[in-house]
Write a structure and sequence with these properties.
Length: 192
C-alpha cells in the first residue's frame, strides 16, 4: 500500500511537471497529449487506460469520473511516462520528487514560470540551452560551484554580460574548423 502511494505521488508529479524537467531530457509526444490551447480537454475513460496504468492509478479509481478532464489527461500522461521509464530513470524521478517536495511554494512557482518561459522559446534556443546545460554538467564539480557562486553574486547587468559572452563563445566554437591532428604533431605516416 505504501509503495502504491509513493508510485501514485510520483505519477501526480509526472502529471504536474514535464518529463524533461524531471529527467532532463526532451519530451516525447504522447498519444494522451493535451488538447490545443483554448480547446476544452476531453475526459479520459478509465477503461481506455492500460491495465498497468489502472493498477498504478488505482488509488484514484473511485474518484476518476469526478476528476476534471484536464487532470485525467495529465494523470494518464504521467502514468504512461512512469511505465516507460527504466529503473534508473525511476530512481531519478523519485529523487527529483523528494527535492520538489522540499521546495517552498514560492520556489515551485518560480520553477513553473521558468519552465513555461523555456517552453515558449523557439526550438533552436531550447536546444542551445540544453546543450549549454550538458556542457555545464560535464564541468568538474569545483568549476560548477565557482560558476554558480559568480552567477549568484552578479548584478543583473553583470549576468547579462555573462550571458552575452557565453553566446559569443558558443558562436565562435561553432565557426571554428575541427582540428584533424593534435597540436604539435603532423599527420602520421604509415610504418614501412
Amino acid at each position: 500500500m505504501i509503495k502504491e502511494r509513493k508510485a501514485l505521488m510520483l505519477v501526480l508529479l509526472l502529471a504536474a511537471a514535464p518529463a524533461c524537467a524531471l529527467a532532463q531530457q526532451q519530451p516525447a509526444p504522447s498519444p494522451a497529449a493535451a488538447a490545443a490551447p483554448g480547446v476544452p480537454a476531453a475526459p479520459v475513460a478509465w477503461s481506455s487506460l492500460s491495465p498497468q496504468q489502472q493498477r498504478l492509478l488505482g488509488p484514484v479509481a473511485q474518484q476518476w469520473t469526478s476528476l476534471p478532464p484536464a487532470r485525467q489527461q495529465a494523470l494518464a500522461r504521467g502514468s504512461e511516462r512512469w511505465l516507460k521509464m527504466n529503473p534508473q530513470q525511476r530512481t531519478m524521478a523519485r529523487q527529483r520528487f523528494q527535492q520538489w517536495r522540499q521546495l517552498s511554494p514560492q520556489q515551485r512557482q518560480t520553477l513553473r514560470r521558468r519552465w513555461q518561459k523555456f517552453r515558449s522559446l523557439p526550438p533552436q534556443q531550447q536546444q542551445a540551452i540544453r546543450q549549454s546545460f550538458r556542457q555545464f554538467q560535464r564541468l568538474p564539480p569545483w568549476r560548477r560551484r565557482m560558476l554558480r557562486q559568480q552567477w549568484q553574486n552578479a548584478t543583473p547587468a553583470q549576468r547579462q554580460l555573462m550571458m552575452q559572452r557565453a553566446q559569443q563563445s558558443r558562436r565562435q566554437r561553432q565557426m571554428m574548423p575541427l582540428r584533424r591532428f593534435p597540436m604539435g604533431r603532423g599527420p602520421r605516416r604509415p610504418r614501412g
